Amino acid sequence: MTQSATQFIQRMLQTHPQSGQSPFEMSALVECISACFECAQVCTSCADACLGETEHLSHLAHCIRLNSDCADICDTTGRILIRQTQPELSVIRAQVQSCLAACKACGDECKQHAEKMNMKHCELCAESCRRCEQACQALLNGMQA
Amino acid sequence: MTQSATQFIQRMLQTHPQSGQSPFEMSALVECISACFECAQVCTSCADACLGETEHLSHLAHCIRLNSDCADICDTTGRILIRQTQPELSVIRAQVQSCLAACKACGDECKQHAEKMNMKHCELCAESCRRCEQACQALLNGMQA
Amino acid sequence: MTQSATQFIQRMLQTHPQSGQSPFEMSALVECISACFECAQVCTSCADACLGETEHLSHLAHCIRLNSDCADICDTTGRILIRQTQPELSVIRAQVQSCLAACKACGDECKQHAEKMNMKHCELCAESCRRCEQACQALLNGMQA
Amino acid sequence: MTQSATQFIQRMLQTHPQSGQSPFEMSALVECISACFECAQVCTSCADACLGETEHLSHLAHCIRLNSDCADICDTTGRILIRQTQPELSVIRAQVQSCLAACKACGDECKQHAEKMNMKHCELCAESCRRCEQACQALLNGMQA
């Protein structure tokens, strides 16, 4: 229970009968899966926390929109990356690129609210989006090599 | 209840306070949303129907994998496209491109099982994937114009 | 493309190798699956339309919350019901009961906004929630018989 | 990055503007959210690992079915529990009960494959299902008190 999510995902992948055939470098893959699922959770939470900011709600509509899209995209990307059986690289690459775009857009928006309005949930969300954006970029870099 | 899913989605979009500001041509958008949600359902059903093909299961593992990915991607794409409040075009474009890739890969695989093994669920799934692939392409063509 | 969603789901179920073993009455099952997926789409759309109601946003926070929960629950319930391979009745029954509760709560809230604030997206959403609530109740009644 | 998922969820909830009004005991809530999201990931992974067990696939169809349902249910339950704005207790209670049922059914099935066939992914999945089942039960016990 006190292990990190990253370590748990690594253990799951190691038990997979076909994980030895993965086209990905294992540590980059584990980091990307972990970052996707964390970001999906944090964006779901940030959308809801913004919705609870009664006095600032009208300024946060764009943030809620981006959080909602990013949560759905990160969740789907995490599900696709965690699957190891007979992967289709064209699909995985396109979905990771979409995840990168969503995390960049959402992270940029949240960073503004963190800096200008001192919103702590947006600060945590911007951190998580940045981590996921970087993990997606690293995975894509490894695929193109 | 007897209206098509496409007509129902059109009615929802017409009630949206910001739908007049959509960057998309409305009939292409409605068709793409409808095709995404239909394909998500059909792929979920086809993955499960393949799982029930006890005698042919080992030949259908790749199909189940592609169905599962395509179901998740189409569902997320439909959710993102149905949202009209302050859309972020870079995110939408990337996700529609991923949906197009998933529908192409899954449709190609299902078409083979429909033709070679006479699998009726794969035949319906291939049709639905092709419809969604074309709707994604039409929407992307309209965005780039 | 002009067929109803209900008809399409029925065609998919008829191609399933194990659909003859379903513990459900087929027309009640098809109606419930169709209602779940429609309601998931409508609730996603209504949450976003409420978010776009700039002047009334603070009154719609509870509605957005209920729409978001109902969208997630209906989508999951539809996915579980459309699967026919070796169903587990205790799981299905509990998830359909949750869907019924979510549709009742969300439908009641949307009905108020439809009547008091003349919100057309909430009116359509209330209709869809009511249809899904009734379809879940009918399915549960059939299970207990 | 090395913090546990549980700690990260706790930090997010602490930044929520309405978290002080939660009807739940905070440590039980955090544990349940963390367990739901972990179980959703592990079940997605176990379904796919079972699909990759080429020689044993026909014995694992029921397990894949239960994994798929449990993954969807746990993901939805985690999303609903992480939201703090104006919660609807009837909906939350019903969804947590469904999650408990899904984790019990899936955990029991995976435990059998872990013991009889020495499947390591099923062993990890059974652990994660059991943790989530207990966390759901603890949360429900606290609600009824």
Automatic annotation (TrEMBL), chains A, B, C, D:
Per the record, the domain of life is: Bacteria
Kindly provide the name given to this protein in its UniProt entry.
Answer: Four-helix bundle copper-binding protein
Pfam (any one) = Csp
Organism, by scientific name, is Deinococcus detaillensis
Q: Which InterPro entries match?
A: Csp_YhjQ (IPR005560), YHJQ-like (IPR044543)
For this protein, the record's PANTHER family field holds: CYTOPLASMIC PROTEIN (PTHR37310:SF1), CYTOPLASMIC PROTEIN-RELATED (PTHR37310)
Read off the CDD domains from this record: DUF326 (cd08026)
